[in-house]
Specification:
3 domains, five-stranded antiparallel sheet, single chain
């Protein structure tokens, strides 16, 4: 059996129903518990299961409705919002001339959208990560941007992730936006891991240092992605699902869309493009050499992590949503 815990919420899974029933009986003799039966909701996430088609659909419509109520935006009229953030205009620190907003209110907005993003919405990861960088000194344009993000979540509250019926192996996608931060010119790392047709892990984060080239930014992003790949692979092995890894139980497939950074992983020689890169990022070379990861090229149009590194709109954003395995409703894709 696999038992997932979060404070006093438990999710129990296993191939033998009688063993699960016996565990709950024995556990209930030690602790006072409430058995809710087959899991349909946990931590604000609704679970729709179709055993015949072998699919799971996860959504958080109820949480988003509660978030709108808590933020007192029920009466906020707006047209349907089709993307989380429109560009870089709001992603700059407050200047002396900018009007400030209440810090606690802004932090409440960020906390609310952060839980939605962390639980189920990788399509909002870039916007959430960027807007969270202004928690200590938010300006009016930051507040407007986070309200736009909330309206996007309300407009797409039925959106979720569908897993199955096909179960392709765990695959990680790594991307970077070179010099994307307009204030300090640091790049943004983005990665996402897909399993059974949907995202299971995602990240959007500013890099710690200023990269001197696109190759360096992408190489650092790949290194970050490789560390997560090793952890996810170990998790799958621990719970008995190593068959969903790569060519062997010790290999995880990664994808990148920058040929130079991929060559840098495979070429151990030090040259002008890599001699200054911090030693910690070269860990990826050792992982690749030992066969723990296998890195292949994928074109930008098929890069699932693209929307986690930069603001996208229109068809580019719709393609990003589809690649992440997000669906507008159960049984649909894209």
């Amino acid at each position: 059996m696999i038992i997932g815990t979060w404070v006093d919420d438990l999710a129990i899974a296993g191939p033998n129903l009688s063993e699960i029933v016996e565990f709950k009986r024995a556990f209930g003799q030690i602790f006072k518990i409430k058995d809710l039966g087959e899991m349909k909701k946990i931590l604000g996430i609704k679970i729709t299961r179709n055993r015949r088609e072998r699919t799971l659909f996860l959504s958080q419509e109820a949480y988003i409705d509660k978030m709108i109520s808590d933020l007192k935006m029920e009466q906020d009229s707006h047209r349907a919002v089709t993307f989380p953030i429109g560009g870089y205009e709001a992603l700059v620190p407050a200047s002396e001339m900018d009007e400030r907003v209440d810090v606690k209110v802004y932090q409440q907005y960020i906390g609310s959208v952060t839980y939605a993003m962390t639980a189920l919405r990788p399509d909002t990861a870039f916007a959430t990560n960027k807007l969270a960088q202004y928690l200590s000194d938010p300006a009016k344009h930051h507040q407007q941007a986070v309200k736009h993000l909330v309206r996007y979540l309300r407009s797409t509250k039925g959106m979720g992730i569908q897993y199955g019926p096909e179960t392709p192996n765990l695959t990680g996608y790594s991307d970077a936006d070179y010099g994307g931060d307009k204030s300090d010119r640091k790049s943004t790392t983005g990665n996402v891991f897909l399993l059974a047709g949907g995202a299971v892990s995602w990240l959007s984060r500013k890099q710690r240092s200023v990269s001197t080239s696109t190759t360096e930014a992408e190489y650092i992003a790949l290194s970050t992605c490789a560390k997560q790949a090793v952890w996810l692979a170990q998790l799958l092995r621990d719970i008995g699902y190593a068959q969903y890894l790569g060519d062997s139980p010790w290999t995880t497939n990664l994808r990148g869309d920058n040929q130079s950074s991929l060559a840098l992983v495979r070429n151990p020689q030090i040259h002008e493009r890599s001699k200054h890169i911090d030693i910690c990022y070269h860990n990826i070379r050792d992982r690749e050499k030992r066969g723990q990861i296998k890195i292949d090229y994928v074109c930008t149009a098929e890069m699932a992590a693209d929307g986690l590194t930069k603001p996208l709109t229109g068809s580019l954003f719709e393609n990003s949503v589809s690649l992440l395995g997000l669906s507008r409703s159960y049984g649909t894709h894209g």
